[in-house]
Amino acid sequence: MAKIQNVVTAIDPVWERILDEGQSAVREEPLLGGLVHSSILHHKSVEQALAYRISLKLASGEMSEQLLREICEEAFAMDPRISTAARADIMAVYERDPACHRYIQPMLFFKGFQAVQCYRIAHWLWNEGRKDMAYFFQMRSSEVFGIDIHPAARIGQGIMIDHAHSIVIGETAVVGDNVSMLHSVTLGGTGKEEEDRHPKIGDGVLIGAGAKVLGNIKVGECSRIAAGSVVLEEVPPCKTVAGVPAKIVGEAGCSQPAVSMDQTQL
Length: 266
What we know:
Elements: H1 2-10, H2 13-28, H3 33-41, H4 46-58, H5 65-78, H6 80-96, H7 104-108, H8 111-127, H9 131-145, E1 147-149, E2 154-155, E3 160-161, E4 167-169, E5 174-175, E6 180-181, E7 186-188, E8 200-201, E9 206-207, E10 212-214, E11 218-219, E12 224-225, E13 230-231, E14 239-242, E15 247-251, H10 257-260
Parallel strand pairs: 1-4, 2-5, 3-6, 4-7, 5-8, 6-9, 7-10, 8-11, 9-12, 10-13, 12-14
Antiparallel strand pairs: 14-15
């Protein structure tokens, strides 16, 4: 596994671009030199940089930065899918967020991206049976970023969460690949029921700001959920839903709404 990781690092265009952008950032804003060097230029890979960044953000008097960093490094070493997803997330943010002009921005500044990477470590811990540590990551991520993602939730890659404040994703929620959502989205339950009780979001879905999707319902791939909607029933693929409660108001408008981020019909 270590050999595979070394090969990926050696031919990693995402990391090479991040390094180039980091060097440019130091030249353009020398006062940020310490931040950029410690968070980016000092490291040899995306994995090392993310482990440092996550541990720095989540450290507290209850858990040291060094311990958290060791946990993150272990997760990256044991499960290469975390690394693959992180790179896909960086590219997703760059491609879909008009405020993102460099790959380095999600790594340093965007809490949506950073919170998702914290979730990925927590999810690995959960699957390893280290549930209390997973809960600690969830708790600190909620405190630091204002984003609450249960570590048991299953989230794909290529995820873009714009602005990201007040995101809530419940325990049995499933989010597919290439999903985009804006701030104040809730993927929640409808009461105190146990077992499978949260939404299943298909690939390529766009969820507008403030939308609430409640219950064990399926949102079909490449659909759109309008801002402020409350979704209580299944959404077919490639449709746009809006309202409280949400109803189908038309087609999705394009083949990949989560990528195009076209909300003009929402």
